[in-house]
Design a protein that fits this description.
It contains three helices and 13 strands. The protein is mostly beta strands.
Length: 162
């Protein structure tokens, strides 16, 4: 059986994600910790995340480290701003071409992702520690990123909502 994006959306009960694509939470630790900011968070959380064709996960950031794991489909290009510089991680299964099966996005870094060749789909998992909470989630404002990083204005035009 040939699997496509709709197969995984149906089988994994994925729903639309605010940043783009589809997701389903699969794990939320029952153990709670207190962050350095005084807020309590689950120790860890995990989701499935799927993008297809020209869908994008638009620039956003969270307050925790996030680990990404490739499961199926095409290569995912994850664009991250680290210390003011753009890095592109190719999350996929072709290790001979420099792709990686897992990647780490450091806390508080702006990042976005898309199917590398804009054709097909990619299914990944993401784990966040301390655990994900939407109060720690921030969508980028294109105008703010352009002011902060003017050399990348074209990229923000493509990978930001507004």
């Amino acid at each position: 059986m040939q699997k496509d994006a709709q197969y995984y959306v149906n089988k994994l009960s994925l729903i639309a994600h605010p940043e783009g694509g589809f997701y389903a939470e699969t794990y939320r630790s029952k153990n709670i910790i207190q962050n350095s900011d005084g807020n309590q968070r689950n120790i860890s959380t995990a989701i499935y995340f799927l993008l297809s064709d020209t869908q994008k996960s638009h620039f956003h950031r969270i307050k925790s480290d996030e680990l990404w794991f490739h499961h199926d489909g095409e290569t995912l290009a994850i664009t991250v701003i680290v210390d003011g510089k753009i890095e592109v991680i190719h999350l996929g299964k072709d290790l001979e071409k420099g792709e990686v099966l897992q990647a780490i996005i450091p806390a508080n870094c702006w990042f976005a992702s898309e199917v590398k060749n804009k054709k097909g789909f990619v299914l990944v998992s993401c784990t966040v520690a301390p655990g994900f909470d939407f109060t720690d989630f921030e969508m980028a404002k294109k105008a703010d990123l352009v002011i902060q990083y003017p050399a990348y204005a074209g990229l923000f035009e493509e990978l930001c909502f507004a």
